[in-house]
Structures are given as C-alpha cells and as structure tokens.
Amino acid sequence: MKLSVALNAEQREFDVPANTTLLSLLREEAGCFSVKHGCETGDCGACAVIVDGRIVNACILLAAQVDEREVITVEGIPWVMASMSGAAQHNELPEASDVEGGAGHNSSDSNAASKSSFQNPEAFSREEHPSTYELLHPLQQAFVDAHAIQCGYCTPGMILSSLALFAEKGLIELPSIKRKTRVTPVRRKPGIKKLPPSEQEVREALAGNLCRCTGYLKPVEAVLRAAEELVSEG
Ligand code: FES
Ligand code: FES
User: Which ligand is nearest to the CA of 60?
Assistant: First the structure.
C-alpha cells in the first residue's frame, strides 16, 4: 500500500505491504537506525518515536497508521534544534513560490529566504544546514555530560520521550511541516515563567523506556539538567 509520511522535515512516500510495522518502515524503508529493535511487544520503549507530538512505540503500530501523519525520530533532532534557534519564527508554511524561488520569491528578502529554507522539506538537509548537524541538542549534551549513556540502546527512545515531555511542558515547540500553525500544548500567558518538569514528571515520562545499564539515575539527572538549561535560556 502507498503511504505518505512527514518524516523529520521531509514528506516521504512509501509503498509497503499492509502488514508492515512502523518499526520496519522506519528502519528498513526510511533508514532511521536510531529507532531500535527491542521486544516487539510495546514493553521496552527502544523503538519509541514521536507521532504528531506524542510518544509511541513503533513496534506495535502499523505503518499504515502514520499515513498522512508526522513522525520525528532522533535523526530529526537537527530540525528540532533549528526551530529552537529561531531559524523559523513564523507560523505559516511558505507558498510554493517562496520555496522554489518562483514569482513570489524576492531574492532581496533574505529573511523570507531563510524561512523557506527551513520549512521547505526538500531543503532542510545535512547539505543545507551542515553546522546544525554537527551540534548536539542540549538534551543530548546533558546525557553525555551526566554520563547517562552506557550501551546506548535505550538512549534514542529516552531522548524522544524527554523531548515529548518538554513539548508538553512548553519548554520547546516541536516543528511541523504539516501543521499550518505550530502547536504548543501548554500555553502560558505572556510574562509567565517556563517551569521545568519535576523529577516525578521526568520519571513518569521515562517509565516506558527500559534500560539495562544505567539504573535510571543518570538519565533522570540528564533530563532535569537539560530542562533547567532550556528554562534559563527562556
Ligand atoms: S521494540 Fe518496541 S517497545 Fe520494545
Ligand atoms: S544504556 Fe544500555 S540499555 Fe540503557
């Protein structure tokens, strides 16, 4: 069956058997090897990905269930970072003419050009933004700094569970090539300070990500550390 999936800033088309799982689609068809193959029963969280802003286990979803939906894996984190850094400050998707340099594209409007570059799914790539791909997200850096990674098999799922928590708490906005306007689940009135998640909230967010190595203390510490950094950055 034919599927159209917004995957990490890119609209991708797939033609797969109807019984293909999302895990197989992402690893075998899309080449997203950050999505790990673990229990295949929805228990370990190694295959966790973000679908339309929510964390899900890819092994227990059919690929068909993400047709016309938006999926973010760890490979999409440079795109998430670019949105955090203000590479795109507007809410509307560009017109085709903006994206392709058509009649509506004015080369003197460099701001519009950078917005188009960010939101054009064809354009946001390692080639287009090489420096972004060399950086770690503050959350990834916190995992390194807190020594929260041992074998690393659980780490992509933990990173995405934490990103989904941060988005839910309003610390970050997950970018989208499908939504006309961005969605921030927690809306604060102007002037209301961002609050980091509590340790309990972090533990609950990571509860679906099993780790055989770290004992969970370091990953929880890393997530809290990254949350504090995001709050202090405003
Ligand atoms: S492999 Fe999907 S939850 Fe374990
Ligand atoms: S670091 Fe090895 S499973 Fe978590």
Answer: 1
| Residues with C-beta less than 6 Å from any ligand 1 atom | 37-40, 42-47, 57, 59
The confidence score (pLDDT) of residue 82 equals 85
* 50 token code pair: 């973000």
| Number of other CB atoms surrounding residue 225 within 10 Å | 19
* Yes or no: domain 2-74 corresponds to CATH 3.10.20.30: yes
Over residues 48-81, the pLDDT tens digits come to 999 999 999 999 999 999 999 999 999 999 999 8
- Domain ranges (residues) in the chain: 2-74, 88-128, 138-176+187-233
Complete DSSP assignment for 45-77:
-TTEEEETTEEEEGGGSBGGGGTT-EEE-GGGH
